[in-house]
Structure formats: C-alpha cells, structure tokens
C-alpha cells in the first residue's frame, strides 16, 4: 500500500514516511524544557517543577502540539493513519530516560465510542510499541468508566469528568508509566495516576506526545 499510496512526511513533505528520520531527529533535538503542568522552569531529572504537586513523580513530553508533531498526532488520532504509531512511539522512546526494568507501561484508555469510530485504541497501540522498544511489560488494567469526552469542555468540566473516569484492577507493586497523546489541563493524567496508586502501584510516571493550552484545545 505504501507503494501505491505513499505517505508524505508531516513536517517536510518528503515522500516515503508519515514522519521522516530527519524530522524525527529535529523534534527530539529540540526538547520540551518546561514544567508539563504549569509551563514554568523545570527540574533537572524530569519535566516537573518543585511547585506542582501531582500524584506522578516524574513526567516527560515530546513537544508542543504544533507543526509537524501536531499534524502527525492528528493523522493518527483522527484520520486512522495507523502508520503514524511507529514514529510517534520512537519519539516517546527518545524523550524517556532509562526506566527500572520492572516498570509497567500503561496506556490511558480511550472511550469506547472513539475506539469504534477510529477502529482502534490509538493509545494502546502506541503504548504497546513503546513497551516493545524498551522490552517492558504492557499493563492494561486501567479502565475508562463512562463515555464523557473532554474536547470542547471547560477546565472545571474536564476535572469533574476525570474524577469519575477511571477504575483499575489490582496491579503489581512496581513503577508504572502512563502514556497519553496530549496534555491540556492535566486532569486525565492526575486521576489516572491516582487510580494506579489506589490499585497498588509503587510509583507513577507519565509521558505525553504533546502539550497544549486549553485555549488551543
């Protein structure tokens, strides 16, 4: 299919891949160097500042939701371009440092209506590929409750929805890495992390593909 209907790089337009090697390198070489939560100065070991108190203890982000990164995410998320999963997982692999070998990789689950529309759970596929790159175990015990979606919601609505959005089966007492595509208010990751702690996780880390403000959501 790539011969008959080739992909074009979302960043430079070069034929042959959803995101070419050169553009993947450009994205990774310009790291996101602000606090994921407040966008202020960050600490040395993760993209969290000392003032933001979240359930997760470490966080990383590939970049702002803009330009080629935004286009790649949108193709994957909204246009059923499954080929984007691999380059996006490579970007995640490029920003996350070495993790303990017992770390479990956890996708933030997608609501069922969106899975039906897209034909796949895009975050689960992304997490599975990342776990394969790192030779880590995938953990899918985190579950989405209800069908509320956050696009177009206010900050207060997003927080209220996220509070009720997750349940989790018992998990191993081990570090867990939550994976999601876009960080806006942070409500989803906050309450997903709390659900993992309640289920038995020893520590929770998070990594996202992109950061955007609520005004740009």
Written account of the structure:
- This protein has 217 residues and is α/β, with parallel strands linked by helices.
- It has a single domain (32-216), classed as Rossmann fold, CATH 3.40.50.
- Helices cover 34% and strands 17% of the residues.
- It has helices at residues 21-28, 67-78, 85-95, 112-118, 122-134, 155-163, 187-199; strands at residues 58-64, 104-107, 137-138, 142-144, 166-168, 175-183, 203-211.
- The strands form two sheets. A five-stranded parallel beta sheet has the order 1-7-6-2-3, with helices on both faces. A two-stranded antiparallel sheet has the order 4-5.
- Strand 6 (175-183), helix 7 and strand 7 (203-211) form a beta-alpha-beta unit.
- The mean pLDDT is 90.
Feature tags:
217 residues, alpha/beta, Rossmann fold, globular
What's the mean pLDDT score?
Answer: 90
Unreliable stretches covering 5 or more consecutive residues: none
Strand content: 15-25%
Number of domains: 1
The CATH topology label is Rossmann fold
H/E series: HEHHEHHEEHEEHE
* CATH domain class name: Alpha Beta
Shape: globular
| Distance N to C terminus | 33 Å
The CATH architecture assignment turns out to be 3-Layer(aba) Sandwich
Find the count of extended strands (DSSP E, 2+ residues).
7
Can you count the helices?
Answer: 7
Short description:
The chain is an alpha/beta fold and about 220 residues long. It contains seven helices and seven strands.
């Amino acid at each position: 299919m790539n011969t008959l209907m080739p992909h074009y790089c979302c960043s430079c337009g070069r034929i042959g891949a959803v995101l070419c090697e050169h553009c993947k390198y450009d994205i990774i070489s310009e790291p996101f160097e602000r606090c994921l939560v407040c966008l202020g100065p960050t600490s040395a070991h993760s993209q969290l500042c000392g003032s933001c108190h979240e359930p997760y203890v470490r966080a990383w982000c590939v970049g702002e939701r803009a330009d080629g990164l935004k286009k790649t995410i949108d193709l994957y998320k909204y246009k059923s371009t499954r080929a984007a999963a691999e380059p996006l997982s490579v970007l995640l692999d490029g920003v996350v440092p070495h993790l303990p070998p017992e770390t479990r990789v956890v996708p933030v689950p997608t609501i069922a209506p969106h899975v039906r529309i897209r034909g796949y759970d895009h975050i689960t596929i992304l997490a599975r590929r990342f776990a394969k790159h790192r030779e880590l175990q995938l953990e899918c015990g985190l579950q989405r409750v209800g069908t509320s979606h956050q696009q177009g919601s206010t900050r207060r609505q997003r927080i209220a929805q996220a509070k009720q959005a997750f349940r989790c089966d018992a998990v191993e007492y081990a570090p867990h890495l939550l994976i999601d595509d876009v960080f806006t208010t942070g409500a989803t990751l906050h309450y997903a992390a709390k659900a993992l702690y309640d289920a038995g996780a020893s520590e929770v880390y998070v990594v996202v593909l992109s950061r955007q403000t609520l005004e740009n959501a």
